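Notes on consecutive records. When two proteins share a document, each keeps its own sequence and its own token line. Never mix them. Below: protein one.
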Amino acid sequence: MGKWMDGYLEKLEAKRLKSQQGGGQDRQEVQHSLNKLTARERMELLFDKGAFDELGALTRDARPPLDGKKRPSPGDGVVMGGGQINGRNALAFCLDFTVMAGGLGNDGVWMLADLVKKAGERNVPLIGMLDSAGSRISVKDGYTGLNGLGRLFKYMSQYSGVSPRIMMVLGPCTGPLAALPVMGDFRIFNEESAFLWLGGAMESDEAGTAEFHMEKSGQCDFVVDSDEDAIDKAKELLAYMPQNCWEMPPFVDSGDDPERREEAILDVMPENVKFTYDVHEIIELIVDNGEFLEVQEEYATHLVTGFARIGGYPIGIVANNPDEMSGVFEIDSADKYDRFMNFLDCFNIPIITMVDSTAYVPGDKWERLGIIRHGAKNLHSYSHLTTQKITVVLRRSYGGSNIVMGCAQMHPDVVFGWPCGEFAPTGPESIVEAIFHKELAKAEEKGGKEKRQEYYDMLLATVRERFNIMHHSMDWTSYYMVEEAIDPRDTRAKIYRTIVATLDKQEELPEKKRFIKPA
């Protein structure tokens, strides 16, 4: 090798060594004392061994600080690049808290913007790890630092839906930068160190924490105990997703017989419709090996969403949970449903809706909060789904919930119903009271409350029989139609066969520039 290259290689090696050190040994020790990994340690865990190729390692903050003090700025506080995660190509970035508290500088934000664009152009997943005091914005020679941030948010918006984006909040993330993880598809928070906050006064001790965003704001999808757990969760999520919107999600042989008949499913639902049950029990019985990756587990818990497999095929499950608020729909569960179903449709993942709901909540409080537009948003989104759609009516399918969860006239690929299922505009009890209130009053006049109850029970049984799926199934053109009433024990096999039968289906929407969703 020619000697002329020696000097350059020495300089390159020295620069790379500086980059490897981040903000220096002292800063790395502080990071470890907070039970956080450094940016490079996170990258090493995320990517397959030896598979990470860094981009931008030689970048530095080119603007002299106002106070004249020199501070190390390797990568301008950003570690980023690409490689393989479990053998699949991906791009990732991590904000380095050891470099000026992870503050996002001018070059750093442009690096992130370009990486987002690369992920969209290459059609590969993007993984982000946030650990930053916010934007490093200050006036330097007339520069205010917002231009690159606008570019980053523009690309995050424009390339949304091209490939999956998973964001991990592993430390603070404040100010305008707080929008970045929320613009991803899924957010994973480290319970010990995550803090997400736009600005302003905090009125509780939990404000901005993982718990706050999981239970209150709905801006957190998973809460984990450590950086290592966050990275493991990101890999687990990716396993259900395709590389991009043009591909199908990966099939994985789970070793669980897709035709398995589950006898225990008959023991889950109580005989009396007034009693509740936990829909998780049904989900775990029908999916491969009982493995269900729940999304937003502690948010709007009356609606359950998450990923699983049936016969090795990835699926998304949306299920009303009668154990919580009788499985009703309100504004938070409507938003939770809307976001999840749109993600499934975007990345060709079948959606399985499991219905047992008394509909959307009525009343002045909910009208003031916009329950109508939230319900309309669900209707709008389901009407635009082109992925595989399978509806299973478990028990109650009342009012608007019947439509938004994939009734026959919303054209899912198939509507199955358990024989105990009921379709109705509202609960049978309300209908009996509304229609037969005069007759009930007369019965009470003649025979007292005991006679009234006897007459009420008879009417209720009659109405329930008319609303039952077994009755509705006799009329193919009924508004409340099921295409097949099934034995609950066959639910797994029926879903599996429908997924296989619809793998090649093509569903087209009316041509238009874009749609306008109710909001």
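Protein two starts on the next line and is unrelated to protein one.
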Amino acid sequence: MPETATGSAGARLVGPGAVVGVLSLLVLLGSGTTALQLTGAPGSAVLVPAALALASGAGAAVLARCATRLPGRPGRPWRALSLAAGLLALGQVLAVARPHRDMSTGGIEDLPTLLAVPVAVAVAVLLLPPRAGRRVGSRVLLDGALLTVGVALLGSVVLDELLARIAGPGQGLIAAGYPLVGAVLCGVGLVTVTAVTEARRRSATWLLASFVAMATVALGGALGRASATDGPLWDVVTVLAWLTMLGTGLCAAAADRSGELPGGRRALPLRGAVLACGTSTAALLAVTAGVLTGRPVTAPEAAAATFLLLLTSARTLSWALDAARLTRRLERTEGWFRALVHSGDAVTVVLDAAGRVTSVSGPVADQLGRTEEDLLGAALVTLLHADDRDLVERVAAALRDGAPDGLPATGRLRSTDGGWRDVEVSGAARTGSRRSDDGLVLHLRDVTERRAGQRELERLAYTDSLTGLPNRARFMAALEGALDRAARGRRACVLLVDLDGFKAVNDVAGHDAGDRLLCEVADALRAEARSGDLVARLGGDEFALVVDAGPDEAMALAERLVATLDRTRRHGGTPGDHESGPLLRVSASVGLAEVVAGIDASATVREADLALRTVKAQGKNGVRASGEGLVEESARRSRLARDLPGAIAEGRLRLVHQPVVGVAERRVLGVEALVRWDHPVLGPVSPEEFIGLAEDDGLIVPLQRWVLETATAEHARLVDTGRDLRLGVNISVRHLQARCLVQDVVRALERSGLPAHLLMVEVTESVLMDDDERLLAELAELSALGCVVSLDDFGKGYSSLAYLARLPVDVLKLDRGFVSGIDTDPRGAALVGSVVDLGRTLGMDVVAEGVETPAQREVLVGLGCTFLQGWLTGRPVPAADLPAVIDGFDPALLGHPTVAPLPVPWNG
């Protein structure tokens, strides 16, 4: 199984529940063994080591599983710790096998336990970072040495009586070796706590606790074995320390986050130095107490105490050096900080958790208009304007949420002279950690002049200079706000007010009189509007209101405005002159639209504008609401404009094909592809309507790309069945102007496989009005590709015969307007005859569109028009029905093949 899979399985098998389960087992075993030892139960010599073997084995199993959670190098320490626990379990199993062993001399069961010690040291070494990143400083080594020597000396003093009763080398090994091993483990554990990365700091701390428990096991075991007659106390301590050692080892493995947290380093923890110094102090106090009570000090103890004093002195000296270096660094940093603060234009204010100013520096008087004495001890909130007293809370919330968008924040601060200054919080930070009771550091600067300039610019940007009313930009912003409120259920309306007769005032009385009239109208609108309504001038003689009410109240306001503004008076040439000047009538027309959630501001204004135009069309001086008259047409157009892009993109359009027949060939020679749109709500939409909409909204190119690709693909399948037919596709001039028609045609032909000579590109004669050489080049390039170029609806618009000769046109298609009355209108017939002769002269075929009756056919054939298209010869059908229409075409629809040309009916 791969390492990642193994690690995943281990993580599933060893969760918090497994560790808690083993810890619970250790607690139960501790209670049981303590009871057995204190009561002196006969089977305790077997049950106690059996319990320890069970605990050690369970610990070894869980540690092994924990190692699989961290595959590779990170899991090595816990595999080693699992081995150590296994050795401890083996030793207790051997102890169970020797129930009548001599506790004072030890035996083979002690060998696995002793072997577990170097394995435990290896655990500490494996926890350390790789050699390249491992840096153990002199202070760390001093602390480790202090702890090791201190534990050894303390153990020597505690075991003084035991050492005096040593009877042989076996007891000497037990009495002296175990405490020495414990001292070494404590020193190694302390160095490990200091040297590991941050991700393993907690694990190393638990491992140190496990080593301390192991030292306690060694010390308790030594005392228990050498003084068996003193009662079971030391045995109880040894067993509980043993279980504690296993539990803390499990916690160490469970706390390892080397795979989850970054492996950064930090300075020496204070607890390591405190533990080392505390242990050395306790050892020295123990030696001193022994001397005071008459206990002799041995030479090794004296040497150890002396060495301990030297180590303590060295550690104290290092602390003094560190303190001096830190003091110099702090003084230098403080100097830099003060220079930085005083060199800037911002004031640095430090607030405590209650919001009181505890420190202030920088140009306080210049920026805040106060002295440092005024600010120190004051609550900053009390100095702020009542509307800005949430400033500090907003800044604190921005820091708490980690949202820098909350800065800079601006508020008004009272200065000593009683005035207000606009103060900006340009930066902020916490004085400590992210706790809620931390203070804040704020950087404040005076922005009064800048804010005043901004307000003036805003006033100029959002105010009409003539009337003082809000302008169009301010009106649109207010309308956006009304739309937001409408989404929350609050109703609003828009009124568009247009003056009737204003042009006459300008033309007859002059522009000055017109400007005065606009100012008077603005005053009248302000007077009639309510306090919550916005009155704006959009430009010229057009005004607008955003009414904070429903349609009924807005309609009542609109009717009052119409009544107020309907006046006939003289418009003098000078201000205040109402006696002279022409007598002119001025009124107002008002369009109303309700603000509806989900409809954008521009659409709302369009609805109101259509209602306004309806009023103008129906006689002016009135009010109309959205939904009346032309508004229905606007709603339809808006719906079509909104749905057309989706219909194009999702292929909801369809094509039909109308045959084009040859009189001489008496069969179908080609088809014209016509696009259709069946709207799911509005029903069939005429091509004139949605194609014009597509041209206006910039959708004609994607629409005709779809038509080209779909039509050529369908026609290619028809040609593959052996039918030699030409395909006509209508192209808008807008598509030509977009300069991408050639690429679109080439792509459609390549995708469908249709030969270029079978595609006829039909452009309207409006191309003749666009005297652009680039359009000619586009058409020439299409002709060079092999496509047939046709001029559609010829004669409908602004045909220029001189320009026609320059176009690479192969076919002229007569507009149906000529054909519709050709059998009764001699002039129309004469024009058609002229076009047929023109086409013959220029080498162009002529196709007559809209042929619906045999009479029209007879006149056209008599005039020499040999290609017909219309309902008489075939209606538009889907592509699936086209083969049947082509194969089933009745030549009799073209009349007798030998009909002689008819004379042009000049006289009817």
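For the record: The first strand starts at residue 347 and ends at 351.
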